[in-house]
Structure formats: C-alpha cells, structure tokens
Automatic annotation (TrEMBL):
The keyword ATP-binding does not apply. Coiled coil: none annotated. SUPFAM superfamilies: Ribonuclease PH domain 2-like, Ribosomal protein S5 domain 2-like. Signal peptide: none annotated. The keyword Ribosomal protein does not apply. Belongs to the RNase PH family. It comes from Pterocles burchelli. The gene is Exosc4. It is found in: Cytoplasm; Nucleus, Nucleolus; Nucleus, Nucleoplasm. The lineage of its organism: Eukaryota, Metazoa, Chordata, Craniata, Vertebrata. This is Exosome complex component RRP41.
Length: 246
C-alpha cells in the first residue's frame, strides 16, 4: 500500500477512519487475581496484556538493590500466535523484544515514584496477544493501567500512540497495513497533565515540518486515549470500592 493509497480522495483511511481518528479502544483492569496489578487492552485488532508484581524485596542477588529507589524490571514479548503466520522463537533470544523491554523500563522509571520504595523491585511484564499495528504503544498503555491497578504511585498517567505520514497528511494510531506500507513512523508517550514527553521513537528520517505535524497528531491521540483510559481507571476504582464495602 503506497503512501498515496493510505488516504482516499474523500480523506478516509482504508479502515474508514479520518487521519487523526483513533481505532476503537477497549480496556479492563484486574484481569489476573494472582498479580498485584494487571490490565488488558484492545486498540483496534491489536491486543496487549500487562501484569505487575511489586513493589517487593529484591529477587536474586541483593547487590542489585538500589539504596535510594526501586529497581524497575520490564519484559516485552510477542505471542507466537499473535500474527497470521506462526512466529518461531529466535534461538538466542529476541533482540528486538529485549530492546523494547529496555525502553519500557526507561519510560516507567521516569513515570513511577521509585524513590518511595528504596531497595525494592517492581516487575512489569507485557505481551502482545494479537499484532495489528502500534503494538509497542498498546503495551505502554496496558502497562500504565496495570501499574495503577497495583496501586503504585506515578507522577502522571502514561499514554502512548503512534503516527505516520500519508504525503503531507499526518495519520494517528497506525494499523498493521499502514505500518506495512513503509514510510516514516514515530511512537510518542507523554504524561498528559504536564505534557512531558517520556518516549519519542522515530523509525525513519523526516523533515522538521512533517515531524512537528506527526508529533502533534500523536500528541492529540495520546490525550484522546487518556480520556478513554481515565474512565477505565474510574470504573475500576468504583468496582474495588464496592467490593471493599461488601
């Protein structure tokens, strides 16, 4: 699908969305009773799951404990059945998954108030169950909900969205076919209240003017996602409060 084919003459994308329109979002918190926090999210046909354990005492060597803050451990994985073609596990580990796990760790180290939990550990595990575009961003959103479900304080909500370009028109929340079409793509994660950017990943060179347009589209998508996920958090809070009352 070439860039010119990403938008129809009427300005619609292949799935019927406007350029900056999000895919349908569904999310739930508290999906695993065994974990301290958990969440499941669907963004279009992309489905992600996140579980959180902690804060807890350091596992393994205690020499890794940080005296002034919690150690955040993140693992990112993609299920072998997440795409139409069954994926084979790399013989020596998935380097891309390790890289994305490291980025997830850096992102949540910036968002979580780790100094409240010295010499402890927080584990965040995310997995893509179905891949159809903006996978990493969906994992960030699921992880943010899971961290909140675990009752771990953060500086702010964390929301992430992708963006791309169809010629000079920015597209938000890219689907699988749109990502497969190639072209510049970026992933943006921000703290909505302050507007602080905690992640900016660009997949190809992009002129400054187009970069600003793509970042603005991703930023608007993050703020729209925040409104949706905030309702999910409030519904979960009401649910937990009702259970405590019983």
């Amino acid at each position: 699908m070439a860039a010119a084919e990403l938008l129809s003459d009427e300005g619609y994308r292949a799935d019927g969305r406007r350029p900056t329109e999000l895919r349908k979002v569904r999310a739930r918190m508290g999906v695993f009773a065994q974990a301290d926090g958990s969440a499941y999210i669907e963004q279009g046909n992309t489905k992600a799951l996140a579980v959180v354990y902690g804060p807890h005492e350091m596992r393994g060597s205690r020499s890794k404990a940080l005296p002034d803050r919690a150690l955040v451990n993140c693992q990112y994985s993609v299920a072998t059945f997440s795409t139409g073609e069954r994926r084979r596990r790399p013989p020596h580990g998935d380097r891309r998954a390790a890289e994305l796990g490291l980025r997830l760790k850096q992102l949540f180290e910036a968002a979580i108030l780790t100094r409240l939990f010295p010499r402890s550990q927080i584990d965040i595990y995310v997995q893509i169950l179905q891949s159809d575009g903006s996978d990493y961003c969906a994992c960030v959103n699921a992880a943010a909900l899971a961290v909140m479900d675990a009752g771990i304080p953060m500086r702010d909500f964390v929301c992430a969205s992708s963006a791309g370009m169809a010629d000079d028109t920015p597209l938000a929340d890219l689907s699988g076919p749109e990502e497969a079409a190639g072209g510049p793509q970026l992933a943006l994660a921000l703290l909505p209240a302050s507007g602080q950017i905690v992640l900016l990943r660009l997949g190809a060179r992009l002129h400054q003017e187009r970069l600003e347009a793509a970042m603005e589209a991703a930023g608007q998508a993050c703020r729209a996602l925040h409104a949706v996920l905030d309702r999910v958090v409030r519904e979960r809070l009401c649910e937990v409060t009702a259970l405590m009352g019983d």
